[in-house]
Amino acid sequence: MSLELEPVVTGRPLPPSPTPGPMEARLRAVRDSGRKLLIPYLTGGLGKWADIVRAVADAGADAVEIGIPFSDPVADGPVIERATQIALEQGMTTAACLEHVRELRRRGVNAPLILMGYYNPILAYGEAAFCRDSRAAGASGLIVPDLPPEEGAVLERECQRNGLALTYLLAPTSTVNRICTVNARSTGFIYLASITGVTGARADLPPDLVDFVQRVRLESSQPLAVGFGVSTPEQAARVAAFADGVIVGSALVQLLADANWQHRAAHFIAALRGAMDRPIPWRRPDAVSAFG
Q1: What is the mean pLDDT of residues 99-113?
Q2: Which of 132, 204, 212, 242 lies in the 20 to 30 Å Cα band around 193?
Q3: Is residue 162 part of a domain?
Q4: Three-state DSSP class for 38?
Q5: 116: domain range?
């Protein structure tokens, strides 16, 4: 796979990123301590959801992404699509998802809780009301995968008013100009989608992933977390060798179909945490099998 990239000028000062808020300051402190960030994703309202989040937080997650169910999850693969559909059929709504966040805080979950949702439900709720209610419930930040920074000014303003981080995504095809724009507008961390497709567990990591992360690092001092496709402890350990964090979603959500979900989910997060604490030097996967 070859990409037409803009020239990268090295040795210049990094452009400024937004002033760190509470969540970004916490994640930066973890990164600066030498620990790699582990950020699992869970679909909001699926099964005994509060117990699941508490289990993965206790097992070693540094933050937890909470997916707000939506009927048209364009960035998600079949596992999360199915989980989202089940949650909607069980009556999950945006407001109910926020109430679950409130319940997690009442239960003593202290890890940053990041709401990941599509823009349509947020717009229907009202950006100002959504950010106000998210913060009141105890959310730490937002990820909106279908919101580009060119259209994010209103939500950014409301996030700033309520002390919420707003994290944007980059893809392997992102140009230097796009990387600089996201660095200037993203707060919390920068989400690096390892591929240009949808979420889902994959047998191999993309062959150009390390090059992608290094290109972004030239332009940003923010924490860089890689998601989309990381599904095993070994893969997490390899990504931890060059990125600041790892995001795992589909592989974890898939475990929730098992009757012993709580034990398996906690065991899986503990295995990821242990592997990431012992990074494996990067080995470039075969370019043919990487997307098999």
Answers
A1: 93
A2: 132
A3: yes
A4: strand
A5: 34-166+230-276
Torsion of CA 173, 178, 182, 183, to 10 degrees: 100
Which is it for strands 37-43 and 169-170: parallel, antiparallel or unpaired? unpaired
The CA-based diameter of the chain, rounded to the nearest angstrom, is 54
Show Cβ contacts of residue 254 under 8 Å, excluding neighbours closer than 6 positions.
Answer: 79, 201
Q: Which positions ≥6 away from 29 have C-beta within 8 Å?
A: none
Strand order in the sheet with 224-227: 165-167, 141-143, 113-116, 64-67, 37-43, 245-248, 224-227, 190-193, 169-170
Q: Using N-to-C axis directions, what is the helix angle for 261-276 and 233-240, rounded to 10°?
A: 30
Q: What is the CATH number of the domain that holds 154?
A: 3.20.20.70
| Half-sphere exposure at residue 34, Cβ-oriented, CA atoms within 13 angstroms | 3
Catalytic residue ranges: 65, 76
Residue 265 lies in a domain: yes
Distance CA 169, CA 76 (A): 14
pLDDT tens-digit series, residues 59-86: 999 999 999 988 776 666 677 788 888 8
pTM of the predicted model as reported, rounded to 2 decimal places = 0.86
Say what angle helices 127-137 and 94-106 make with each other, to 10 degrees. 20
- Report the alpha-carbon distance of residue 111 to residue 109 in Å, rounded: 6
